[in-house]
Amino acid sequence: MKYVVVEPDEALDPGLRADLLDTWVAATDAGGAVGFTAPAPVEQVAETLDEALGRVAAGIDLLGVLHDGERYAGMGVLANRGSALYAHWRTVLRVMVHPKHQGTGAGRILMEGLRGSATDLGLQQLQLTIRDGLGLENFYQPLGYRIVGRHPQAIRVAPDDYRDEIMLIRDL
Q1: Is 130 in contact with 146 (CB distance < 8 Å)?
Q2: 91 pairs with which residues across the strands?
Q3: Cα 41 → chain centroid
Q4: Among 2, 41, 78, 81, which is 20 to 30 Å from 122 by CA?
Q5: How far lies 44's CA from each of 25, 49, 59, 104, 166, in Å?
Q6: Cβ distance 129 to 22 under 8 Å?
């Protein structure tokens, strides 16, 4: 598994989009906390992916992807808030690995790649949020992230199922 940064002029490649859409839908359908709930609303996922790829193509955000030798199988975004006041850090968004590669260390490769990209950009800190109730903090904390806050019942995954949103940061 190899980590690669997608250049702005590569962000609108149809093959990249197809692989990432497949990964996002598969991750959602496998129960991943990647912005949607199963079954994946493919049209909405595609629209959200296109927005993210557009920001990468415009040079606003950085997209790191995993390639397994045949196809793109994971992604993560370093999102820029667009203000000089926040220029020293980025929000990590859309972190996912295709389910067939989960448990193989691919997620660690992706997160270490994003950390390296952040260091290359001269950033001082990364921030991300996770959905409570899935144990995701157990993945991120050994990678250097620490919990700094919690928004109670911020996420409604079903009419009677609310989850906290947990904020983590990592100093670089």
Answers
A1: no
A2: 79, 127
A3: 18
A4: 2
A5: 10, 8, 23, 29, 24
A6: no
What are the beta bridge partners of residue 75?
Answer: 65, 96
* Contact predicate 51/63, CB 8 Å: no
pLDDT tens profile 132-152 = 999 999 999 999 999 999 999
- Alpha helix ranges (H) inside 58-129: 106-120
Per DSSP, the residues of 68-80 read -SSSEEEEEEEE-
pLDDT in tens, 46-62: 999 999 999 999 999 99
| Secondary structure (3-state) at 149 | strand
**Three-class SS of residue 10?**
helix
Query: In the predicted model, what is the mean pLDDT of residues 58-73?
Result: 97
C-alpha of 143 from chain center: 15
Pairing of strands 89-97, 125-131: parallel
Report whether 51 contacts 61 (CB < 8 A): no
Cα–Cα distances (Å) from 132 to 16, 121, 135, 154, 155, in that order, read 30, 30, 7, 10, 9
Strands 161-171 and 125-131: antiparallel
